[in-house]
Amino acid sequence: MIELKKVAIGYQKKGGVLTVQENINGCISKGKLVGLLGGNGKGKSTLLRTILGLQPALKGEVLIQGIPLSGISAKAMAKEVAVVLTDKIQTPYMTVRELIESGRSPHTNWWGKMKHEDLLLIEQVIDQLGIDAIQHRPFNELSDGQKQLSLIGRALAQDTGVILLDEPAAHLDVPNKIRIFSLLQQLSRGGKTVLICSHDLDLSLRFCDDLLLLHQEELPVLGMAEELVLNGTFGRYFNQGEVQFNIQSGRFDFQKKFRRQVNIDTVPSPQRRWLVQALHKKEIGISPLPTENEIQWKDSQWHFNSQQFDHLSPLINAIDTYLT
Ligand SMILES: Nc1ncnc2c1ncn2[C@@H]1O[C@H](COP(=O)(O)OP(=O)(O)OP(=O)(O)O)[C@@H](O)[C@H]1O
């Protein structure tokens, strides 16, 4: 586990100190998938680098598996903590498989000779990530998403108690993103401590047990994801102007006030959800009051202004014309 005790993070500069965040407290527990979330420039990467000991904390203390960072050698750190950072890595010619195998180096002998168990683990990682088809391709020739999967593979092959990931799913397609979050969740259930920094708030809410939220004006907060939503903290930390978190849908809405409005009170789900989206694209809002502009869904048909429509597209065009 990772313990943070009154940690302040930032940079020593010529003119003084730039404090990015302070008073970061809490325990990133074993067996949990924890998301590190915050808007741009709030200090997520800085905190990850501080936890890794790549830069000193300005104040406070970081403990890894109960030991203060200052007391952990680089070799011991490599056995305890695996990391996937966003920095572009330059590998001299190396295949995906060789890159993943290099994750075993903290555990192998000086010659890097791998035992049967090491090879089994490599096979398992390649299988878990679904990268069998690219395992013999040169890393430098891969797409960004394939590179990301390979780097995650190297971290998994390291087989450490703690895994830190900085935006590991940024370049991945949706099924691969879900696969990575789900795999990290599975790893945490197996007893690992996993801290993932992400801008994907939706997947973080769905998969992470706890969230560590960073904000400019408010103190960092660590808590159960659903609790932070229900007590309003999550929304408060991310709402910006017209972009507001909707506690019902769990999504961020662009809450623009539309001049033109219709009433859809009687439209059931799922038609309602997609009708609202199509109306908003035409700058038509939803009126909470019954008005004469009512849309209905009856007998698998749309009804508006005494007309019937089999499909959404002509309905939306008719409303758009009528309300112009
Ligand atoms: N080497 C550096 N020297 C000085 N300031 C830095 C340095 N690296 C980052 N910063 C500053 O620290 C703050 C936090 O940056 P950091 O990269 O940790 O944010 P982040 O939350 O990871 O952002 P993003 O989501 O945009 O990647 C920013 O104001 C940034 O300008």
From TrEMBL:
Keywords: ATP-binding, Nucleotide-binding, Transport
Domain of life where this protein originates: Bacteria
Keyword Phosphoprotein: no
Residues annotated as domain ABC transporter: 2-241
Pfam family, one: ABC_tran
GO MF annotations, alphabetized: ATP binding
KW Transport (keyword) present: yes
InterPro entries on file: AAA+_ATPase, ABC_transporter-like_ATP-bd, Metal_Ion_Import_ABC, P-loop_NTPase
Database matches in PANTHER family: METAL TRANSPORT SYSTEM ATP-BINDING PROTEIN TM_0124-RELATED, MOLYBDATE IMPORT ATP-BINDING PROTEIN MOLC
Stated family: Belongs to the ABC transporter superfamily.
Protein name: Iron(III) ABC transporter ATP-binding protein
Organism lineage: Bacteria, Pseudomonadati, Bacteroidota, Cytophagia, Cytophagales
